[in-house]
Write a structure and sequence with these properties.
This protein is of the alpha+beta class. The protein is built from six helices and twelve strands. The chain binds dinuclear copper ion.
């Protein structure tokens, strides 16, 4: 990425960037000019009309019509300019072009998942074509999150039980950060993702391959290790024994855990599968029931791979 942004703004990566930036700079520079004018006038009058002698009287001047009209009309016009300009940009940002490609965005504690129209889904990585509008249809499975790509000037709250929308058209290839900007719990600051912008031909090849299944010749537990990263399991489950939001995966297979209802349960294949698809069913004592379901996000074979990976993490 050649564009490194400016002092005030990150690099400009979408068609909306220049719209937002020019309005921002208009407000900034106007404010600076007015600030200098007002402060300059204060300083000037302070000197000019300072008390010079003990018995000096002010004259009876009380108003100046021309000046008053001037300082009412100019700011009013400026405010109108900002309003009309801002409103037009707002409409542009919120109404996606009719030909936009739609991608479903789901937020949950604490990762993003993306569903493409061809059935492919990914976690924390959104791949989009260069120079084509992309519309995001967003909802949350739990609390309020907020989808933010600073380089695209795209930011929209993601709510449970409701759809919100955002759209953008990327103007340069590369990788751009996605942040969650609504405090959503312990893992909020780790709720990170990236948008990868590919030139159109590359995107076409990618989306074709993306729906294809597993990489050939990889052991199941290696695939599981990849999924552990790509599906963001690491946000809550460590593999080194550290206790985080959820139990660590290290040495957990075969262990007998005490559950929140007091009963005991051995961690076997079925328990892991149930915990992935229906996480609230059996909570290990001492942990909160905060995990979202991966029903529909993980294919059966991917669940198998994760089980194989967890098995491989011996104490
Ligand atoms: Cu999701 Cu903060």
């Amino acid at each position: 990425m050649s564009d490194t942004g400016t002092l005030f703004m990150p690099p400009a990566g979408s068609t909306l960037s220049s719209e937002v930036d020019s309005l921002f700079y208009f407000i900034l520079y106007t404010a600076i000019v007015i600030f200098i004018l007002v402060m300059g006038a204060i300083a000037f009058f302070m000197l000019k009309y300072r008390r010079k002698g003990a018995r000096e009287l002010t004259d009876g001047r009380d108003h100046n019509l021309k000046l008053e009209i001037l300082w009412t009309v100019i700011p009013t016009l400026l405010v109108f300019v900002v309003f009309i300009w801002g409103f037009r940009t707002y409409i542009k940002m919120h109404v996606a072009p009719a030909n936009a490609q739609e991608i479903k965005v789901t937020a949950q504690k604490w990762f993003w998942s993306f569903d493409y129209q061809n059935g492919y889904n990914s976690v924390n990585e959104l791949v989009v074509p260069l120079g084509k509008p992309v519309k995001l249809l967003m909802s949350s499975q739990d609390v309020i999150h907020s989808f933010f790509v600073p380089d695209f000037r795209v930011k929209m709250d993601v709510l449970p039980n409701r759809y919100t929308q955002a759209w953008f058209e990327a103007t340069q290839p590369g990788e751009f950060n996605i942040f969650c900007t609504e405090y959503c719990g312990k893992g909020h600051s780790e709720m990170l993702g990236k948008v990868t912008v590919l030139p159109q031909e590359e995107y076409a090849t990618w989306i074709e391959k993306a729906s294809a299944d597993f990489p050939e010749g990889m052991a199941l537990n290696e695939i599981g290790a990849k999924l552990y990263q790509s599906k963001a399991c690491f946000t809550c489950h460590s593999v080194d024994g550290t206790i985080s939001v959820g139990p660590s995966f290290k040495g957990v297979f075969g262990k007998t855990e005490r559950l929140s209802d007091g009963s005991q349960n051995t961690v076997d294949e079925n328990y892991i599968r149930e915990s992935i698809l229906n996480p609230q069913a059996k909570i290990v004592q001492g942990f909160q029931p905060v995990m979202p379901t991966y029903q529909g996000t993980l294919k059966d074979k991917e669940i198998d791979a994760l089980i194989a990976y967890i098995k491989s993490l011996k104490e």
